[in-house]
Amino acid sequence: MSADAGRQGTVLPTPSVGDEVAWVQRHLGHLALEPEVAASPDFRGGQSAADLALANFDVTGYARARNEVWPERRRGASRLSPYIRHGLIDLPSLWAHVADGPAGDRDKYRDELLWQEYARHLHARLGDAIRRPLRHEPPRRDRVGEWGWNREMACVDLAVEELETSGWLVNQTRMWLASQWSVRAGFDWREGAEHFERHLLDGSAAANLLGWQWTVGTGTGKPYGFSRWQVRKRAPGLCETCPLNDHCPIDGWPDSDGGPTVTHPDPLLRADPRAAVTAGPASVERLDGDLAPDAVWLTWESLGDGDPALVAHPDLPAVLVLDERLLKHRRLSGKRLVFVAETLADLATRRDVEVHLGNPATVLTGRRLAATAAPVPGWRRLAPRLELEKHPWPWLVRPGSGPVTSFTAWRRSSGAPTTGAARTGARRPRR
Ligand SMILES: Cc1cc2nc3c(=O)[nH]c(=O)nc-3n(C[C@H](O)[C@H](O)[C@H](O)COP(=O)(O)OP(=O)(O)OC[C@H]3O[C@@H](n4cnc5c(N)ncnc54)[C@H](O)[C@@H]3O)c2cc1C
Engineered SS bond to 321: which of 163, 290, 335, 360, CB 3.0-4.6 Å? Predict the structure, then answer.
């Protein structure tokens, strides 16, 4: 390993374009889920790939086809989520990108962007408490089923294969798998969510846990039932390829009564007394004495060229610290690590990039840094210990103090932009 280990953690060589898989195998292989690291066959990381994907995305037809699953040519989802996850495409830019699309498609798409924004608000406010049932206990099962994701079922096999190989699923199959795992088979939803987060290139605590909470009913009290009916509608012809077609185990609806109400729901769901802290800086907060930073610290949330701190300091090197303890705990699939390595390699074609493996607090202490305030608990814990020039997160709508008990309540109270351009009268949403 050509690495420089020490108090600063391990300084890794910067990955280069074309060598990312080998780089991950060499430097992060001991932290990856699989012994043999492989890239996703379907997604490339990096700003250049994100820009290309965005340029090719046309929202026309989205509302009708976004939920379609199979055959693949029927799908209408944008597949931009891995780039959104790592801040290579921000939500305000995406909101503007669809402005001239057909009204129904544009509005539906913007609704989905608001779900992403809602997930981020919820996570920024609740922190790790998003991992606990929000409003209802999970549905009770007297006996946990013998199978969760039975690969003999063509519908389950299709989705699990795509999750574990490609690292991406349409929203519909995420709901199928989550429902099958928890609502029907009675397995712990948090274990299913962890499996998703290991594999999904867009895997984030915010959207993944909200998705699971919504599907299994802990967020709403109404679990989503998965049955053959959805497969016939969203993947016509798939059942005919299934060995279990004549004795389909999901022919009927699951018994899916919601669990009892959570006894002590988190009071932060109703109101946030520290909304300004949750939202982060509204304008740039300079270093004490107006000192200049000597590097830009990048987080997993914001690896794009448009990162506000990167934009403010075009001549400074960018520094990313891969948190070794966290990665060891998470055991992410190699394809997720390759996606990030591709992003760093691409960035390194335009500016200096330093990569460390170790404890971020140790590596970054003593440096003067500029960084964008990421809306995640890790940032909240670490930022106060560092010398930072802080840049505002590019919110679609700045978090406020109102309820986040449901998407509807949040939307009503947050001043979230309305989805119709005619109603907003503007191409870009309010910040
Ligand atoms: C169980 C489960 C787990 C999920 N895990 C994640 C996750 O880890 N990361 C993630 O980004 N999304 C997650 N989602 C939400 C959604 O499924 C994905 O965002 C979407 O499938 C990504 O594909 P796309 O970019 O083609 O989406 P499109 O349909 O093209 O939507 C555009 C964008 O809107 C946002 N969006 C759409 N639906 C949702 C939603 N329900 N919640 C939040 N944002 C949404 C995403 O940013 C998405 O990229 C999950 C949903 C469920 C039900």
Answer: 360
On whether both 230 and 305 belong to a single domain, the answer is no
Question: Does 63 contact ligand 1 (Cβ within 6 A)?
Answer: no
- At 34-61, the pLDDT tens digits run 999 999 999 999 999 999 999 999 999 9
pLDDT of residue 67: 97
CA distances from 320 to 208, 294, 298, 341, 356 (A): 24, 14, 5, 11, 6
- Identify which of 72, 171, 198, 336 to mutate to test ligand 1's pocket (most ligand atoms within 8 A of the CB): 171
CA distance 322 to 300: 9
Nearest of 336, 343, 339, 282 to residue 308 by alpha carbon: 282
* CA–CA gap between residue 159 and residue 230 (Å, rounded): 13
Instruction: Among 245, 265, 285, give the residue marking a domain's end.
Output: 265
Rounded distance between C-alpha atoms, residue 217 and residue 206, angstroms: 16
What per-residue confidence (pLDDT) applies to 277?
Answer: 96
Distance 39 CA to ligand 1 centre (A): 21
> Do 206 and 141 have their domain in common?
yes
Closest atom, ligand 1, to C-alpha of 203: 8
Whether this prediction's pTM lies above 0.85 is answered by yes
Is the CB of 213 within 6 Å of ligand 1? Answer: no
Which atom in ligand 1 lies closest to the alpha carbon of residue 215? Answer: 53
**Atom 43 of ligand 1: nearest residue by CA position:** 116
Does 137 contact ligand 1 (Cβ within 6 A)?
A: no
Give the nearest ligand 1 atom to 205 CA. Answer: 8
CA dihedral sign of residues 99, 417, 279, 360: negative
Using the predicted structure, report yes or no on whether residue 118 has a pLDDT greater than 60: yes
Rounded Cα–Cα distance for residues 156 and 152 (Å) = 8
255 and 375 part of one domain: no
User: Is ligand 1 within 6 A of the CB of residue 65?
Assistant: no
Query: Burial level of 386, CB count in 10 A (0-12/13-18/19+)?
Result: middle
Length of the chain: 431
- The residue segments making up the domain with residue 149 are 133-265
Handedness of CA 54, 59, 63, 68 (dihedral sign): negative
